[in-house]
Amino acid sequence: MKGLGELERSIMDILWAHDGPLTAREVGRLMADRDLAPTTVMTVLDRLTRKGFLNRTRDGRAWRYEPGASRDAYVAELMLEALDMTGDRSAALTRFAQTVSGTEAEILRKALTELEEE
Amino acid sequence: MKGLGELERSIMDILWAHDGPLTAREVGRLMADRDLAPTTVMTVLDRLTRKGFLNRTRDGRAWRYEPGASRDAYVAELMLEALDMTGDRSAALTRFAQTVSGTEAEILRKALTELEEE
DNA sequence: CGGGTAGTACTACGTCGTGTAGAGGTGGGT
DNA sequence: ACCCACCTCTACACGACGTAGTACTACCCG
């Protein structure tokens, strides 16, 4: 895959947080605090599309963008990618399990248990 | 933290795979296939040290480099970092648990169980 | 004692990803 | 006929990284 830059991530965050596809203009409005040129937003949306993070469909002259995958899926994939970096996946996984907080260990346990039951 | 480049990662791999600190020259020799200039290796070792991935100690005129953390710790940290990217850690964790292979789920389960027992 | 050798520090340069944005084209509404 | 909203293309600066040269120093060999 590939990591995202800071602006790219902000924009993905907006699209992930929003149900339904948005136009560049709409995204820009939702990021009014950053005061970006409209073309900047368009450029980034375009790059994200090219990288496969977004899908776009026509809406009149405008494009509407929406995430190709959920943020959770993206995060999970990043985690797997990190995991791939090691020769010893088992050791890394164990290490990871030991590192997460108690609450999170609980969540993991529950998810794994449910998995098992299916 | 911060990701590593490709060369940087190769060098970390060598140091991670090796017990005990190595000099730049030794690292270079272990990467003979890439035929890098000695200074290249030194530069990268230096950058890695500055980034906090390596510690170095004097050995005569030379420096000896060794990882500040194990590869597993690094991988686990990367995974946690990915996890931090989301607002909903629980959802991402669940997603992650569902995504890993059966074998890996088993490893996770075991690690979590052992955790619990302590 | 003088030179090669190993090692260091410093500097440099090309490339790529990313943030940022302007210029110019085009189609629809008034 | 014109303006506006949008698009596409192109551009540029900056920082990270791969890669390496240069210059300086300390030591061993003969």
Automatic annotation (TrEMBL), chains A, B:
Pfam family, one: Penicillinase_R
Gene3D superfamilies listed in its UniProt record: 6.10.140.850, Winged helix-like DNA-binding domain superfamily/Winged helix DNA-binding domain (1.10.10.10)
Keyword terms of this UniProt record: DNA-binding, Transcription, Transcription regulation
GO molecular function: DNA binding
An example Gene Ontology biological process: negative regulation of DNA-templated transcription
InterPro entries, A to Z: BlaI_family (IPR005650), WH-like_DNA-bd_sf (IPR036388), WH_DNA-bd_sf (IPR036390)
Superkingdom field: Bacteria
Family: Belongs to the BlaI transcriptional regulatory family.
Entry protein name: Transcriptional regulator
